[in-house]
């Protein structure tokens, strides 16, 4: 059971499984559900997972397979970029302000602008990416600070 911080609404899960399943395991499984839903949502938005108009199973299967392959590629590239950040493999010198990590949508945008059409000026595209990620980091920090203030006010 959990309570929403915004309006106090209660949410809960009904779980079926072996009686010896621990509470920690059940909470872990419930937490993974959110990750899976986010992955499907990204797949729909970034790789067209839900953009199919087919009549046969085989055509649907091909479309979904290619879409999920593209999503997996973007996720692997995101993980590689995240691994490089701490090892000095970043694309530019350390920024003055923190950046949000590369996301799947950001990697797709970079690929679309740098690889598939005739490439734009790489420095301009990367600068745009850094600006957007810095802006997202500021927004995230501001959001977290506001949530912390709201939480303290409720207590």
Task: List the uncertain runs.
Answer: none
Strand content: under 5%
Helix content: 55-70%
Instruction: Tell me the total number of β-strands.
Output: 2
Secondary-structure element sequence?
EEHHHH
Alpha carbon gap, first and last residue? 20 Å
Number of helices, counting only DSSP H or I runs of 4 residues or more: 4
Main beta sheet: 2 strands, antiparallel
Overall average residue pLDDT: 83
> Measured on Cα atoms, how large is the radius of gyration?
20 Å
Spatial order of strands in the largest sheet: 1-2
Describe this protein's structure.
The structure is a single chain. This protein is mainly alpha-helical and 155 residues long. The chain has a domain at 93-155. Helices cover 63% and strands 3% of the residues. It is built from four helices and two strands; from the N terminus they run ββαααα. It has a two-stranded antiparallel sheet with strand order 1-2. A hairpin with a 6-residue loop joins strand 1 and strand 2 (10-11). Helix 2 (57-85) crosses helix 3 (104-114) and helix 3 (104-114) packs antiparallel against helix 4. It is flat, with a radius of gyration of 20 Å. The mean pLDDT is 83.
